[in-house]
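Subject: design request, 92 residues
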């Protein structure tokens, strides 16, 4: 079955929201601040990712997981391109 960009962005946003729900309000604010600072993006961009306006790039997912200190996005869900498929398969 072919995965469409729309499916990917909805799945990623759902996982991101699921992680944010595990945090207190203050922890969530601090997480967003750290991601925005580390990724060099505007807060608006972060919330575009959160509310499914656009796909979360792989590099941004890695930044979020580094800041969170845990896996947010399953490696099996990071398949965005053939290159990403090869990279994830090599890491496993």
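Subject: RE: design request

Done. Sequence follows.
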């Amino acid at each position: 079955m072919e995965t469409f960009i729309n499916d990917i962005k909805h799945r990623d946003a759902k996982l991101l929201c699921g992680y944010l729900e595990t945090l207190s309000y203050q922890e969530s604010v601090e997480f967003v601040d750290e991601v925005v600072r580390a990724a060099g993006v505007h807060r608006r961009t972060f919330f575009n990712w959160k509310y499914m306006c656009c796909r979360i790039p792989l590099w941004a997912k890695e930044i979020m997981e580094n800041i969170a200190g845990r896996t947010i996005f399953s490696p099996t869900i990071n398949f965005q391109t053939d290159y990403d498929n090869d990279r994830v398969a090599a890491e496993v």
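The chain has one domain: 5-91.
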